[in-house]
């Protein structure tokens, strides 16, 4: 079996993955700007790198996964103008900016938890690393690759290009075209006049008097530019050179291009050796966006409360659906795709359900070990998760035949499968099957429904004088820790808090 | 009805609560040092202030609740010696300190969520406010109330006492006794020699070469003292003077005493106008502690896996149990107390269950409005939650009589009660009754158990050729979104992800 190969945006090729200091792997992923709820597109990115981290862990690497929280410096316009996104929200909602940060950070964590996207090893915030960012800006100034204007500091792209070179290597943009493009569409916006060159970008911005988020710096009170935080935090926690940097496709330019230039200017190293970019999510073939009126949030899927959706779907169904396109391809969201995911997830759940009850005999008429290899090969081939899922289902189809005595499996293969399958599904694909896919709310709802049904059956048994059955229901419920209480108003039930009640 | 009165540790008296800028209330609570899992004692403190925040909100105040995360500077010994708690854990577990911080922050949030302790409005970290802490230390130095020794900065308690005064006012400790006490037990520990006076405390500590967590400062590379973070963060987010500061009893000295001195030295204001301290939790009459071998963690309660416990209890049962002592009294943890809480919680759940089915008629033979006032009075009397709970149960007892036609309730009272009761229980007491008390895991377990029982009933029906009943069970389950699948291995079930499946 070949080893892991990953597509490197920097070379444009799939390359064998060789970590700098095995078994350690340093992975940095750009996290959310917490001024808004994360939408499905964001979730897709975080899911991609969740599976990458899980797969690296399965392969035996010890992953330090850093995913930041952007809580300052991300301006409305990706260029260096417009209001700070968090500052603006704070103004609109009449909150302290950090209240905005807290609200959307809590919401983000909740969504990640429901999608079973594991927390990163470190989750640093931009405001928590102002000192480190200032230090980095100072170093870039020392190198003569930035300049100070009116209390702001800008990265000097032309000087960088002359002395270091490689600006545009990641995104494929050419400096000349950037100038032309910027020139054509250029508006006279605050800060733009201060730049020597339209491709220059802010490392530190002077705070206007009404700007709340501000810190002292050698250049006066201000706040960091958007790009510098990731350079500072990845360097602090992973080193000047580390293994993998991931993020959404849309971050390639300007964010990652600028980040790379900053790293090179400051440390002489480009930061990550592998750059990975997750493609976008479309909705029924169209780019998803607020202005397009087709934006989707996880809560829409979990509640079913959306014009596109016939019903609610569980977080695991959403997770599985988002795994059905390769991370470098566009993923098209459709209700049918969700429905298909739900069905396939049910097949996986079913197989894991009957697996312990199967019996092995004779010789397998299916090569389970090469099937297992084929799953690994798919993941090793630039994390081809949809292919791994398709092959997983092929195997399960065969397993279904075994269950129906239409095929054989040897004792040895069965034992291996019993150990492998649940781990692969839960640890690598991150599908919560045993602890059940439905959200907490829907599991509780299901419990309510089923209890309602049992109480109804018991009442009917009593009406038809089948007291034996009625009592049986009550007694057996009690054995599993559920107490029924009859009153004139009807029967209520109460969970005694634990299944260990005898 | 009288207004809210709160016990102020500073005066030692219950005082009428008058916020500085109504309807706004600024509340600061010392959060966890994230080097370890939170134990039941910590949970009690956070629960106390969760209810305070809920009650203030009910009263119509707009609360900005700041609860910090201590991720640097808290040394093993509350005096200024010993290793940094997080640094030590990082060394022992061979992790980057921020990995330790992340692990226990995630765990802390999980426990808070299960206990339905709402997230604060802002959750600032000490490492996220190094600049603000340095600025505060600089101001205290400017005031001549601190001194620099070998790259560390210490607060000069004697100078403070001479020029400002009031050190010890919060904790009731006298400076003379502190000197005597410190002198008697004093060991020659790193840093102690540098102090001019044994009661002095560190504002900034020089980092030894092996210390990982370090930042540049005017005094060289180092890290903040433990106490300065709360002064810096409460001032930043709530102002130099604000309403309430809460924390565990054990934080009164030295932490809060030092914090108050720092505030006074730096801003001329003492910070909060009301200091509130939550008392400790004992286990069967003994102080809880690791060395005592009787420490309890929330997971012990939720799993039932602890020598003291006969079974598992839900997070809501634990929450209710911890509400059964006044916050300024010791709360004694016993299995009986948990069992009693479980029973009383069941009564509340039962009442909320039959409340919608009651019918009103004639004149109430119970004064529901004065009963409601009595709940409010209990909470207004320095947050007497156990008294409010007791009175709540008294009312429910009467409601039970109504349900059994042994008492009357007027239409008007019933309507008021239907609007009031669920809100009071869920919004003020924070008891999740509808969304059900059991933890997710135990709800899922219960669902598994109940489904097992239904499948068994269906099988028995088939064996006894009662196909009507067997089919009914299958069909009705399908209606509530649960699919049964029969195979030779038996029957499995599958939740279709949503209760809205038709």
The major sheet of chain A is characterized as:
4 strands, parallel
Largest interface: A-B, 84 and 83 residues
Question: Fraction of residues of chain A in helices?
Answer: 40-55%
So what's the overall shape of chain A? Answer: globular
Nearest-angstrom radius of gyration of chain A? 27 Å
Q: What's the end-to-end separation of chain A, in Å?
A: 51 Å
Counted by DSSP, the helix tally of chain A is: 16
Briefly note the structural class of the backbone of chain A. alpha/beta
Strand order of the largest sheet of chain A: 4-3-9-10
Mean pLDDT of chain A: 90
Oligomer: homodimer
The stretches of 5 or more residues of chain A where confidence is low (pLDDT under 50) are 183-189, 435-440, 497-502
CATH class of the largest domain in chain A: Alpha Beta
Q: Can you tell me the number of structural domains of chain A?
A: 3
Strand tally of chain A is 15
CATH level 4 superfamily of the largest domain in chain A: HUPs
- Please state roughly what percent of the residues of chain A sit in beta strands, choosing from under 5%, 5-15%, 15-25%, 25-35%, 35-45% or over 45%: 5-15%
Q: What is the CATH T-level topology of the largest domain in chain A?
A: Rossmann fold
CATH architectural category of the largest domain in chain A: 3-Layer(aba) Sandwich
């Amino acid at each position: 079996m070949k080893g892991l190969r990953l597509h490197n945006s920097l070379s444009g090729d799939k390359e064998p993955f060789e970590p700098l200091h095995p078994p350690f792997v340093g992975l940095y992923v750009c996290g959310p700007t917490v001024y808004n709820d994360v939408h499905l597109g964001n979730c897709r990115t975080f899911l991609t790198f969740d599976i990458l981290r899980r797969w690296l862990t399965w392969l035996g690497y010890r992953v330090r996964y850093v995913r930041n929280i952007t809580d300052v410096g991300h301006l409305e316009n990706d260029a260096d103008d417009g209001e700070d996104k968090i500052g603006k929200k704070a103004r609109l909602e009449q909150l302290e900016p950090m209240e905005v940060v807290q609200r959307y950070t809590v919401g983000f964590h909740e969504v990640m938890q429901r999608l079973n996207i594991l927390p990163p090893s470190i989750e640093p915030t931009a405001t928590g690393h102002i000192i480190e960012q200032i230090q980095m800006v100072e170093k870039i100034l020392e190198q003569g690759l930035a300049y100070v204007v009116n209390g702001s500091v800008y990265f000097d792209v032309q000087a960088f290009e002359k002395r270091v070179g490689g600006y545009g290597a990641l995104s494929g943009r050419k400096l000349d075209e950037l100038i032309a493009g910027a020139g054509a569409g250029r508006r006279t916006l605050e800060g733009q006049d201060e730049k020597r060159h339209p491709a220059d970008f802010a490392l530190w911005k002077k705070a206007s008097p009404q700007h709340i988020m501000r810190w002292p710096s050698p250049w006066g009170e201000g706040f960091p530019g958007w790009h510098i935080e990731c350079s500072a935090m990845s360097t602090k926690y992973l080193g000047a050179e580390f293994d993998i940097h991931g993020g959404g496709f849309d971050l390639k330019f300007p964010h990652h291009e600028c980040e790379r230039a900053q790293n090179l200017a400051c440390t002489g190293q480009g930061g990550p050796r592998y750059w990975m970019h997750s493609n976008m999510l479309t909705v029924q073939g169209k780019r998803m966006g607020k202005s397009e009126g087709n934006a989707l949030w996880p809560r829409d899927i979990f509640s079913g409360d959306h014009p596109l959706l016939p019903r609610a779907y569980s977080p695991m169904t959403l997770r599985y659906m988002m795994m059905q396109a390769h991370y470098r391809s566009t993923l098209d969201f459709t209700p049918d795709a969700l429905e298909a995911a739900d069905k396939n997830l049910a097949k996986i759940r079913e197989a894991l359900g009957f697996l312990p009850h199967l019996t092995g005999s004779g010789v397998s008429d299916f090569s389970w070990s090469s099937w297992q290899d084929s799953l690994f090969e798919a993941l090793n081939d630039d994390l081809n998760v949809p292919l791994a899922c398709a092959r997983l289902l092929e195997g399960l189809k065969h397993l279904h035949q075994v269950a129906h005595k239409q095929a054989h499996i040897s004792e040895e293969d069965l034992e291996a499968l019993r150990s492998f399958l649940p781990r692969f599904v839960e640890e690598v694909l991150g599908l919560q099957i045993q602890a059940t896919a439905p959200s907490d709310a829907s599991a509780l709802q299901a419990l309510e429904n089923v209890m309602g049904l049992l109480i109804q059956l018991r009442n009917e048994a009593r009406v038809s004088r089948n007291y034996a059955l009625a009592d049986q229901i009550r007694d057996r419920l009690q054995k599993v820790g559920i107490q029924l209480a009859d009153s004139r108003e009807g029967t209520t039930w109460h969970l005694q808090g634990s299944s260990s009640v005898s």
